[in-house]
Amino acid sequence: MNATWRLAPLAGVVWAVLAPWPVPALGQDAVGTELWRVVGVTVPTPYALDAGPTGAFWNPAQIVTVPMVAADVTQTPEAISAAGFLAVVRTGPSRLGSWGLEYGQVDIGDIIRTSVTPDPEGTIPVYTRAVGLTWALTRGSTTVGATLADHDSRLDQSDHQHWTGDLGVVERLGPAITLAAATHFFSRLATDDPGQDLFAAVEWRAWHGALWTGSGDASLRLRYGATLAHGAGTDHEFGIGFDLGAPVALDGMLVRESTYGNVTWRGVAGIRVRIGRYGVTFARDAGVNDIGSSYRVGLEWRLR
């Protein structure tokens, strides 16, 4: 779902809210999810394989080794004018797993209100917020996770709150193959709800070794992911990753989106750098239909 086509259903729901008939709760759920999809274009891996503290927002099954704090800030182009913030604080591993708190918010700040004249009469508030408790546990080659979150979505004078419960799993089949799947914003048993997604992905470590004598281990990874069960076409994600061990990792992905009856392609790339306890992430999507690119900057602090 590229940013341009996301605006169509979002604008439709905004119009419905402002019209003199009620909007069903399902429509409100979809608006909050659409806002997260707008900023999610900066994730450079299939959602089910997104790793790290803030990766728990997309798949709660995260491999956790130490307590950590992390935050991401995302900015979309001026044509969309959406800004996203995501923060996660979590404990280290224990017999009962790792626990964490997550907070996320996406705002669109320049929708102008008008009436009988074209002169602006203020702005229309459009945002979504989520606060959740997340948990993950690793046993052998399997990692499972769950997130329970409270969502608040606002469209002008209409405000909607609801709860979601998500499950995720990551299975490592030897050193080379990783399978992953997760629900996203799951609130009811349905495969045609535009307010929720199902993520699935596979990663193959195609090569592992030293680039030169003394360089340390490097890896080349090929990835495929899919986003489905949201009442529209399946989105396909083709990714590649290259890392020099823990310090530096490069990720790139080409996405085929087929939602709303249109097929589009978009690209996204990112780099992760870790120095000691600190990590920095920068990602950018290539943009579509000449509307510009979205950017994401992330910071991570390992507490020990």
Condensed summary:
By secondary structure, the protein is mainly β.
Q: How would you sum up this structure, described in words?
A:
11% of the residues lie in helices and 51% in strands. It has a 14-stranded antiparallel barrel. It has two helices and 14 strands, in the order ααββββββββββββββ. The protein is mainly β. The longest helix has 16 residues, at 3-18. It has one domain: Porin. Helix 1 runs antiparallel to helix 2.
Question: What is the terminal separation in angstroms?
Answer: 39 Å
User: What's the arrangement of strands in the largest beta sheet?
Assistant: 1-2-3-4-5-6-7-8-9-10-11-12-13-14
Return the structural class: mainly beta
Count of DSSP-assigned helices: 2
* CATH T-level fold name: Porin
Characterize the main sheet: 14 strands, antiparallel, barrel
Mean of pLDDT: 87
Indicate the low-confidence ranges by residue numbers. 1-26
The CATH fourth-level homologous superfamily = monomeric porin ompg
Number of individual domains: 1
How would you sum up the global shape? Answer: globular
The percent range for helix content is 10-25%
Our Rg estimate from Cα atoms comes to: 20 Å
Q: What proportion of the residues form beta strands (DSSP E)?
A: over 45%
CATH architecture: Beta Barrel
What order do the helices and strands follow? HHEEEEEEEEEEEEEE
The top level CATH class name: Mainly Beta
Per DSSP E runs of 2 or more residues, the count of β-strands stands at 14
